[in-house]
């Protein structure tokens, strides 16, 4: 029986959870309150869509929200997010005991007001309750850590979209006798494997078999469409580039930030750094949305922020 959770006894862990649940409740109320205030300062259009930046008011939406953020010590991106979520969830539709993060994730789902009233069962606790991952599943987003069999299978499919990766993964998995046995119980999989064997035999007869296998006694080659190879290579390169960009930023920040100890910056320098950090936060949210939903479109405010306007 588990006696500790992390570095604390189970009883202490339960106490900390109870305290944290209350803190999350208070924090959710504060986040919605800030969103309501931001909405009062810069309302959304009643017929849908944001008011055009810089139009209609003395300061315009972005300038007003940016001034509000500066006066409250928050980032512009945070204030804009609070405002958007508050607009999507009228006060009479907000669910007591459900975190602001869950409201944010479910905000764009169809029938969100009905959906949030029916939390799914937590496989670990058995209780019906919302969590960040549960909300992402309901919204069709990818979760950080796959839990269910379906999520794990979907994660493997996503990683094996490249034809060469899929072929290598299939070979490795079929080397496990139990996996191969269960796979062959699927009629379609069995028929496809049999057809592939016939195709390989026909190919060997049409070509010089000795030359075909020369120097490759232990490993079988397969004929792959060159177009598919190029397409898969490009997809792999895009994924690698994205990971490289993220890792490069983390590595660069890890190297530079410790050197800032004791440094003093001018107001203009601080403003410039703040602006760039806002772009980083906005871009990180954009990346998460893109990889979770496949949607890569930008809203107007984010587009202008990334353009440096």
Please state the average pLDDT score.
79
Give the proportion of residues in helices: 55-70%
Q: Approximately how much beta-strand content do the residues carry?
A: under 5%
Q: What are the secondary-structure elements, in order, as H or E?
A: EEHHHHHHHHHHHHHH
* Form type: globular
Estimate nothing, just give the exact number of structural domains: 3
Detail the poorly predicted runs.
Answer: 47-57
The total count of helices amounts to 14
Q: Work out the number of β strands.
A: 2
Q: Could you say which structural class the secondary elements and strand pairing correspond to?
A: mainly alpha
Radius of gyration: 26 Å
- N-end to C-end Cα span: 58 Å
Sheet with the most strands?
A: 2 strands, antiparallel
Widest β-sheet, arrangement of strands:
1-2
List the helices and strands and how they pair.
Elements: E1 4-5, E2 8-9, H1 10-41, H2 61-72, H3 76-88, H4 100-106, H5 112-115, H6 132-139, H7 149-159, H8 163-174, H9 177-183, H10 187-206, H11 209-213, H12 226-256, H13 267-293, H14 300-306
Antiparallel strand pairs: 1-2
Helix pairs in contact: 1-3, 2-3, 4-6
Structure description:
With 309 residues, the protein is mainly α. The protein folds into 3 domains: 4-118, no CATH class; 160-213, no CATH class; 228-306, no CATH class. It contains 14 helices and 2 strands. The chain has helices at residues 10-41, 61-72, 76-88, 100-106, 112-115, 132-139, 149-159, 163-174, 177-183, 187-206, 209-213, 226-256, 267-293, 300-306, and strands spanning 4-5, 8-9. Strands 1-2 form a two-stranded antiparallel ribbon. Strand 1 and strand 2 (8-9) form a beta hairpin. Helix 4 (100-106) runs parallel beside helix 6 (132-139). It is globular and about 75 Å long. The protein starts with a strand and ends with a helix. The model is unreliable at 47-57 (pLDDT under 50).
């Amino acid at each position: 029986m588990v006696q500790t959770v992390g570095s604390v006894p189970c009883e202490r862990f339960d106490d900390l959870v109870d305290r944290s649940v209350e803190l999350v409740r208070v924090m959710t109320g504060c986040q919605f309150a800030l969103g309501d205030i931001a909405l009062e300062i810069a309302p959304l259009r009643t017929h849908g869509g944001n008011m055009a930046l810089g139009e209609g008011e003395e300061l315009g939406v972005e300038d007003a929200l940016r001034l509000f953020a500066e006066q409250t010590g928050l980032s512009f991106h945070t204030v804009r997010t609070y405002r958007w979520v508050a607009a999507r969830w009228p006060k009479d539709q907000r669910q007591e005991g459900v975190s602001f993060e869950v409201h944010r994730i479910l905000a764009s789902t169809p029938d969100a007001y009905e959906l949030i009233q029916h939390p799914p069962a937590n496989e670990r606790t058995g209780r019906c309750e919302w969590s960040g991952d549960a909300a992402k599943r309901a919204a069709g987003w990818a979760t950080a850590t796959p839990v269910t069999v379906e999520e794990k299978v979907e994660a493997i499919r996503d990683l094996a979209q490249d034809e060469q990766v899929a072929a290598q993964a299939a070979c490795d998995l079929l080397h496990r006798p139990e996996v191969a046995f269960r796979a062959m119980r699927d009629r379609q999989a069995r028929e496809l494997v049999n057809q592939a064997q016939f195709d390989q035999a026909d190919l060997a007869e049409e070509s010089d078999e000795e030359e075909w296998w020369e120097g490759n006694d232990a490993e079988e080659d397969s004929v792959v469409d060159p177009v598919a190879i190029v397409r898969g290579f490009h997809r792999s390169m895009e994924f690698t580039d994205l990971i490289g960009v993220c890792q490069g930023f983390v590595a660069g920040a890890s190297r530079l930030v410790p050197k800032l100890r004791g440094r003093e910056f001018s107001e203009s320098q601080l403003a410039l750094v703040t602006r760039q950090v806002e772009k980083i936060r906005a871009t990180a949210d954009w990346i998460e949305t893109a990889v979770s939903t496949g949607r890569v479109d930008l809203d107007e405010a984010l587009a202008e922020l990334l353009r440096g306007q």
